[in-house]
Predict the 3D structure of the following.
Amino acid sequence: MRIVVTNCNTTREMTEEIVRGARATAGPGTTVTGLTPAWGPESAEGWLDSYLSAAAVLDALRTYEGPPYDAVVMAGFGEHGREGVRELVDVPVVDITEAAAHVACLIGRRYGVVTTLERSCGQIEDSLELAGVGRNCVAVIGTGLGVLELEDGERTEAAFLAAGERAREAGAEVLVLGCAGMTGLQRRVGEKLGLPVVDGVGAAVKLAESLVGLGLTTSRVGTYARPLAKRRVWRRPGASAVD
């Protein structure tokens, strides 16, 4: 089984870190391939970045020329094109936001999300609602750290612990890592906080393996029917503008 894990930003080092976490969770016989968009933001923080990321991820999958794959894991916390990718590809598509929330609901009645910047909280709340798993979320709390600041392990852990305490006080029985760049943090912070912590990348990989093993993929009836046949221009010819 081959799973393609899509980063939602153009930072290759983050793709590599996400892939390491995915491979650590994947079962025997599962190959994990990382995919970094060729264009888009270097980190996804806010609505503008999210919409750019969504289009870039769709474009990366549309033009993918690697080995055939059996499932896609979308490793961007918050919605970065999930619904469009489900229309585009013919294999199961598992988003880490949705996967983490579903797993959290299996082990606790209420969960909380600890993420990066506070500006991302509303977007994550909307993504959880769209996926139908927002009802059990008691809090989405930012650490005040940008995505690219997560490389500082000690600082990230301290910020997560402080935010995690706030989520627990709000009634969270389970915590969710609210950024793919936090992958690997779950064991350390879970022990210190005394409650389960779900890593969305690992959860998505295991759910993707399960869907493939069950022979299931996205329904083509209604919502995720194949895109209508029409002319689509994906980018302006010769465009290479960079902010």
